[in-house]
Amino acid sequence: MKTYSVKASEIKRDWHVIDASGRVLGKLATEAAQLIMGKHKPTYTRHLDVGDYVVVTNANKIVLTGNKSEQKVYHRHTGYPGGLKTVTFEKMIAEKPTWVIEHAVKGMLPKNRLGAAMLKKLKVYTGDAHPHRGQTEKAAE
């Protein structure tokens, strides 16, 4: 009995469209991360990028549960003394709604070159329209 290992030439990538309207951020991010990593496929291999492309639409209509929309904050540091910058979720969703979803999904991917390659398969848009209609319609057939 031999263990089957998928080859790079055998990897088939599909396209998935997720509508973020009224969806909870964490649940949407876990669904997108699993599709991007390829964990839903029987040919999943940890050391290869076997995942699919994910298009997320209506990123500005994402929601958080409870009081998190007022209490959640994002931190970053400039590198200078006293350079801690803090931005609330409400302000971030108004300014950069696509970044919020990208940040949540990025935190669920591997922290190496493979994770960086996987993140390139995530496409996030604020409205219903996206430039990947041709790929997603072929996948729906």
What report would you give on this structure?
This protein is 35% helix and 16% strand. By secondary structure, the protein is of the alpha/beta class. α1 crosses α4 (97-106) and α3 (89-95) packs across α4 (97-106). The longest helix has 13 residues, at 25-37. It is globular. The model has no long low-confidence stretch (mean pLDDT 94).
Topology:
Elements lengths: L14 E5 L5 H13 L15 E5 L10 H4 L1 E5 L6 E5 H7 L1 H10 L6 H7 L2 E3 L8 H8 L1
Parallel strand pairs: 1-2, 2-5
Antiparallel strand pairs: 3-4
What key attributes describe this structure?
141 residues, alpha/beta, Ribosomal Protein L13p, Chain: A, two-stranded antiparallel ribbon, 6 helices, 35% helix, 16% strand
Short description:
The chain is of the alpha/beta class and 141 residues long. It is built from six helices and five strands. It has a single domain (15-130), classed as Alpha-Beta Complex (Ribosomal Protein L13p, Chain: A).
